[in-house]
Amino acid sequence: MQLLNTLYLTTPETYLRVENQTLAIEQNRELKLRVPLHHLHAVVCFGHIQVSTPLMHTLAQQGVALVLLDDHGRFQARLEGATAGNVLLRRAQHQFSLDAGRTLALARCFVAGKVRNARSLLLRGAREAKAEADGARLTRLAQNLAASLRALPGCETLDALRGVEGEAAREHFMGLSLLVRPEAREHFHLQDGRSRRPPRDRLNALLSFLYSLWMNDSRSALEAVGLDPQVGFLHALRPGRAALALDLMEEFRPVADRMALTLINRQQLRAADFVEREGGAVTLKPDARKAVLVAFQERKQETLQHPLLAQPMALGLVPLVQARLLARAVRGETDAEGRPASYLPFLIR
């Protein structure tokens, strides 16, 4: 598998056009950069970026997704070419989603991966905590997440499962502020838990931005293997909602949390890198957003050992691997011993 690049454009009024199989980037009618199209798998535009119609056609023909986000990273639209993948896989996916028992079992896997990874993050923080009280508090919260994991097999409905997941998420976010270095907590903490639309504090704003990046990569991975990102199992189906992409990214949320903490604790982001809008919304400043994008791309290049495949790979490839494992389970393939293949979430260490 080749880890192709995502091109992120954040400067307002940038103009994109195609030129001899390259993407040309102009600002104020001055050429700033050319990027070969065969190096790209997606072009992501934040805010007011202008795209020529010929470039749109070329991107669609070459299978490069064009994603439009608003200034805060919220999804607006996606342009891509003909639907890829085997129609039989999509039909199997739709049939799978109508089977309540199989849907519940798969949704349980997504939640288990998320909670296991969140627990690992808290336990690591407890081990590294400099204050004894912080370590004790993080340990208790990790124990609560362990209780949530034990409760998952007893969930007999999706609503019950979502209830356990919601409570586990609250416990996790209660501990997240304790993972920020003490001298930065005045400016980086979750004021009232998780707030999204809009984020009400700096830490929430950073998490929302990183989650949107993982969401885009999760959707791209699903489409690359031929699954329908709209038909999910844990998240309820709604018009215009990429429910399966939300399902898949659950296990990557703690990965985003860890990256947010790294940026804060290493002082790569400071309080001055955020701005409070009218009404209380907090957002990243443009330069800070670029710094996060650079760090995100660098993090995706880092090599890790996939726990199931037992082979090294770049973090940026893991969503694609997980999408393939998901497709295998949806198709009803069997393992070496003839048992139906189950989906195994990605677990961090």
Per DSSP, what share of the residues sits in E-state strands of 2 or more residues? 15-25%
What is the count of DSSP helices, taking H or I runs of 4+ residues?
Answer: 10
**Domains, number:** 2
Poorly predicted sequence stretches spanning 5 or more consecutive residues: none
The structure class reads alpha/beta
Radius of gyration: 21 Å
Shape: globular
Mean pLDDT: 86
Strand order of the largest sheet: 1-5-7-8
What is the total tally of β strands? 12
CATH-level-4 superfamily name of the largest domain:
CRISPR-associated endonuclease Cas1, C-terminal domain
CATH class of the largest domain: Mainly Alpha
Q: End-to-end span in angstroms?
A: 23 Å
Family: Belongs to the CRISPR-associated endonuclease Cas1 family.
Keywords: Antiviral defense, DNA-binding, Endonuclease, Hydrolase, Magnesium, Manganese, Metal-binding, Nuclease
Pfam families: Cas_Cas1
InterPro entries: Cas1 (IPR050646), CRISPR-assoc_Cas1 (IPR002729), CRISPR-assoc_Cas1_C (IPR042206), CRISPR-assoc_Cas1_DVULG (IPR019856), CRISPR-assoc_Cas1_N (IPR042211)
Task: Give a structural overview.
The chain is an alpha/beta fold and 349 residues long. The protein has two domains: 5-79, CRISPR-associated endonuclease Cas1, N-terminal domain (Ribosomal Protein L15, Chain: K, domain 2); 87-331, CRISPR-associated endonuclease Cas1, C-terminal domain (Four Helix Bundle (Hemerythrin (Met), subunit A)), CATH 1.20.120. It has helices at 53-61, 87-97, 100-128, 132-151, 158-176, 202-225, 243-249, 253-265, 286-301, 318-331; strands at 5-9, 15-19, 22-27, 30-36, 40-46, 50-51, 65-69, 75-79, 274-276, 282-284, 303-305, 312-314. It has a four-stranded mixed sheet with strand order 1-5-7-8, sandwiched between helices. Strand 7 (65-69) and strand 8 form a beta hairpin. Helix 6 (202-225) crosses helix 8 (253-265). The radius of gyration is 21 Å and the shape is globular. The mean pLDDT is 86.
